[in-house]
Write a structure and sequence with these properties.
- The complex is a heterodimer of chains A (about 450) and B (about 230).
- Chain A is an alpha/beta fold and about 450 residues long.
- Chain A contains 16 helices and 16 strands.
- Helix content of chain A is about 35%, strand content about 10%.
- In chain A, helix 5 (about 155-160) links the parallel strand 7 (about 140-145) and strand 8 (about 165).
- In chain A, helix 11 (about 310-320) crosses helix 15.
- By secondary structure, chain B is mainly beta.
- Chain B has one domain: Pectate Lyase C-like.
- Chain B contains two helices and eleven strands.
- The longest helix of chain B has 13 residues, at about 185-195.
- Chain B is elongated and about 60 Å long.
- The chains are: A alpha/beta (about 450), B mainly beta (about 230).
- The interface of A and B includes residues 37, 155, 198 and 199 of A.
- Bound molecules: flavin mononucleotide.
- Flavin mononucleotide (FMN) binds near residues 104, 264, 329, 331 and 360 of chain A.
Chain lengths: ~450, ~230
């Protein structure tokens, strides 16, 4: 009797979850076992990786003096494509809207992006699926993507573009092609892409008519000849080997390099790809800048950075590390209304919650952005959405200016690595910035 | 016929003369000394005739609209890439990716064409008198590829709705590409394409290939085909 009582009282080990087999991992194993298909989703890498929050600005002090907020001018303008193009892209702010396809996004969302960017004095970009008339009409400056799929590609739209962006890869999936599942291939999308309605469409991961940087040089020549050397040619690369890739893109004759880190969003890709391929945005900037500097072309061939840019501090940090501009995708969609808690009831019905909804490929987006369903798409008013986006773009420009003034800079482009310190050893190593309070840059 | 000589003009000068033609422009042009130049006669958009005497490099007639371009020689990779309409006739051979992503018009190759002929084609008609290489018509979306000679490996891999017609031997078919019945309508279509290409062979000798449409929607049981 006594012994039994003691057993009962014996302390028990607290139930312990495995750090290896976490509840998320286990639920994915069960999902895979039940469905026989890998997990596809939208968005970028969700895992925690070194990012811009791991850097801080130093601000002015005894040896640097700040600029007066609101009184002393701090310029934000930038010119992209100054090396070869007759008509570089002149932007009021160094924040552009990244390429997102019509197909992945509704026509209303594309129009809203164009309106918002135009109000804020910047450019927007087409995507895998071609240029829509709505988008062209409402975008003062439109970059036309030249992708492996070449859906909707035609010389008339090419000549209407203010710049051409050759997509070699994306940060979310370097080495992967696009995906648009059957439910999003509406009549209009099918027609623009010349595909049967309802197919699970896989965009090619490689360009059909060139391989490697030597071919790319000739491809760029062809595009320039077709557009009579008027507009800049960007080359967009998913961040993996940024130093070598930037060197090769410069050699191929790019006017602008767009480097997209692994946090960069996508409309639909395998989760395993998004989370496990590519390098963090923070880790690619200095390596690209180094390549540009070695060729003597830093600032002459511009560098645009994307992947997880959320606010003015991120913008300022990119520029301080040597970028000329940044590009945003996910943040722009959130500004339009993506993942807004006001749709919580509907997110619940889809088995998710506001802030975590990433089944953009399925086409049931309650906010009406990543869908081709006319009923849902009608929920986004392009004029109001455009206004929200332009507000957001102006706020983050102001934020970046606030930081630049505190660092004593009369132009955002004058921010420099010396204005920064790092909070973690990892960030210090990746961004090549000294750990706060020290002069130590790991690896140098 | 007006002459343009690439020994006297730069590529930019030559292309800009051709690109500035409109419906009422000079009808016929003769290009001398192409000497393998890349991006020759690209982005044209007028119903003009351009005769190129010699061989060209990459992307000859790229994104052509309306023009008839006739190469008395061979062409490098990506000839008539993304052509919208009009015609490119190649008297010699064509390198890789001939007619890639072409949306319309006709590409006629009198010699052979290398690998990836008609890759990702989107409506163009391609007629080859000789043979073509491996991975031709990969992910071909629509249009017709007619080959009077033989074909290399993996023809029509992951093909959508394009149609392929072959007279000679096919080394192997790619994923989801199968032989289909050659009906009277198909014979008529091939006959028309052969005649308009000035290629004298019998349409009824051709076999037809196209999509089995099994990979159109993802199914784990087809995993080995992806
Ligand atoms: C919905 C969606 C669709 C996209 N479509 C394309 C595309 O068609 N082509 C492309 O190059 N990148 C595409 N991207 C990637 C963006 O251009 C950009 O690289 C990325 O969104 C930047 O990262 P961020 O989302 O963290 O700002 C897409 C991204 C999203 C979110």
């Amino acid at each position: 009797m006594k012994a039994k009582k003691e057993t009962h009282k014996a302390p028990r080990t607290k139930p312990r979850f495995s750090e290896t087999f976490t509840p998320e991992i286990n639920s994915e194993i069960r999902r895979a076992a039940a469905t026989g298909i890998y997990d596809i989703r939208g968005g970028g890498a969700k895992r925690k990786i070194p990012h811009f929050d791991d850097l801080l600005f130093l601000g002015a002090s005894m040896s640097r003096y700040p600029l007066e907020g609101y009184r002393e001018k701090c310029d934000t303008s930038v010119k992209l494509g100054t090396k070869y193009a007759q008509n570089p892209l002149n932007l009021d702010i160094p924040i552009t809207i990244a390429g997102m396809s019509f197909g992945a996004l509704s026509a209303q969302a594309k129009e809203a992006l164009g309106r918002g960017a135009s109000l804020a004095g910047t450019s927007t970009t087409t995507g895998d699926g071609g240029m829509t008339p709505e988008e062209r009409q409402h975008s003062k400056k439109l970059v036309y993507q030249y992708l492996p799929s070449r859906y909707g590609m035609n010389p008339d739209d090419l000549k209407k573009a203010d710049a051409i962006e050759i997509v070699v890869g994306q940060g979310a999936k370097p080495g992967g092609g696009g995906m648009l599942l059957g439910q999003k291939i509406s009549d209009r999308v099918a027609e623009m892409r010349n595909l049967p309605k309802g197919v699970d469409q896989r965009s090619a991961c490689r360009h059909p008519d060139w391989t490697g940087p030597d071919d790319l040089e000739i491809k760029i020549l062809e595009l320039r000849e077709i557009t009579q050397w008027k507009v800049p040619v960007f080359v967009k690369i998913g961040a993996t080997r940024p130093y070598f890739d930037t060197t090769l893109a410069i050699k191929a004759g790019a006017d602008v390099i767009v480097m997209d880190g692994m946090q960069g969003g996508t409309a639909a890709t395998q989760d395993v790809f998004i989370e496990h391929v590519g390098i963090p945005t923070l880790a690619c900037i200095r390596a690209s800048v180094e390549a540009l500097q070695e060729q003597g072309l830093h600032r002459e061939v511009q560098l645009v950075i994307s992947g997880g840019i959320r606010n003015g501090a991120d913008v300022a940090k990119c520029l301080a590390l040597g970028a000329d501009a940044v590009s945003i995708g996910t943040a722009a969609l959130i500004a339009l209304g993506d993942n807004d808690p006001k749709w919580e009831l509907e997110y619940k019905k889809l088995g998710t919650t506001a802030g975590a909804f990433d089944d953009w490929h399925e086409g049931f987006d309650p906010a009406g952005i990543t869908t081709q369903d006319p009923r849902l798409a009608a929920r986004l008013n392009p004029v109001e959405g455009g206004k929200r986006l332009s507000n957001f773009l102006k706020v983050i420009s102001l934020e970046a200016q606030t930081i630049a003034r505190a660092c004593g800079k009369n132009h955002l482009k004058n921010l420099e690595p010396e204005d920064l310190c790092a909070l973690t050893v990892e960030a210090a190593a990746m961004a090549r910035i000294p750990l706060a309070g020290t002069s130590w840059i790991p690896g140098s | 016929m007006r002459e343009l000589d690439l020994e006297k003009l730069s590529l930019r000068e030559l292309n800009s003369v051709l690109q500035s033609q409109d419906k009422n422009g000079q009808e016929s042009w003769l290009i001398r000394n192409p000497k393998g130049a890349h991006a020759l006669a690209v982005g044209l958009d007028a119903p003009i005739n351009v005769r190129i005497e010699g061989s060209t490099g990459y992307y000859c007639a790229g994104m052509n609209k309306n023009a008839l371009i006739h190469v008395i020689g061979s062409v490098g990779p990506g000839a008539a890439e993304n052509m919208m309409s009009g015609k490119l006739i190649v008297e010699g051979n064509a390198s890789q990716y001939a007619g890639a992503t072409g949306h319309g018009g006709t590409l006629i190759i009198k010699g052979n064409s290398s690998s990836r002929c008609g890759i990702s084609m989107k409506g163009i008609d391609i007629v080859v008198q000789g043979s073509i290489g491996h991975m031709s018509a990969f992910m071909a979306q629509s249009g017709n590829l007619v080959v009077a000679g033989d074909v290399g490996d993996s023809l029509g891999d992951s093909i959508y709705e394009a149609q392929i017609f072959v007279r000679g031997a096919v080394n192997s078919l790619g994923a989801d590409c199968i032989e289909k019945e050659m009906t009277f309508q198909h014979i008529q279509l091939v006959d028309k394409l052969l005649k308009s290409s000035d290629i004298g062979c019998e349409a009824s000798e051709f076999k037809r290939f196209g999509s089995a449409r099994k990979l159109y929607n993802f199914d784990i049981d087809n995993l080995s085909d992806y």
